[in-house]
Amino acid sequence: MTDAQQKAAAKNFSEYWKGKGYEKGESQAFWLSLLRDVYGVEHPEQFISFEEQVHLDHTSFIDGTIPSTKVLIEQKGLGKDLRKPIKQSDGTLLTPFQQAKRYITELPVSTGDFSLVV
User: Fold this and answer.
1) What is the pTM of this model?
2) How far apart (Å, rounded) are the C-alpha atoms in residues 83 and 59?
3) Distance between CA atoms of residues 118 and 76, nearest Å
4) What's the pLDDT band for 104 if we cut at 50, 70, 90?
5) Using one digit for the tens of pLDDT, what is the confidence trace for 67-88?
6) Residue-wise pLDDT tens digits, 16-45
C-alpha cells in the first residue's frame, strides 16, 4: 500500500466510523477493519485476540491484545471521557488507563511487556 493509498484508506475508515462507537457491538469490527484496511495487515484475526479473561478478585475481560506487538487495548464507547474514572464491575472507579494497567499486572509473565492503547 502506498502512502497515498493508506491516507485514502484512513480517510474512508474515519468517515465510516464517524458517529459510531458502541463498545460491545462494534469493537471487534473496528479493530479488524483498522488493521486490514488502513494498516494493510492480511488476516488480522490471526494477530489480534479479543475478550481475553483476566482473573482479579473477579473475572474481567481485556478488550483486545496484539501479542506480537505487545499491545493491550482497552476500548470505551463513544462519548466516554477517557480521563475520568469509570465504575468497574467490582465497584472500583478507574480511568481506562488504570484499568488496563490493572489487567497487565495479572497477565502471565510469559506474555511479556505490553504497551497500553486506550
Assistant:
1) 0.80
2) 24
3) 8
4) confident
5) 888 889 999 988 889 999 999 8
6) 999 988 777 889 999 999 999 999 999 999
Cβ atoms within 10 A of the Cβ of 84, count?
9
C-alpha cell at 29: 469490527
* DSSP sequence for 21-78: --HHHHHHHHHHHIIIIIT--SSGGGT-EEEEEEESSSEEEEEEEEGGGTEEE----T
- Are the C-beta atoms of 74 and 63 separated by less than 8 Å? yes
| Grid cell of 6 as nine digits | 493508506
The three cell numbers of residue 95 are: 480511568
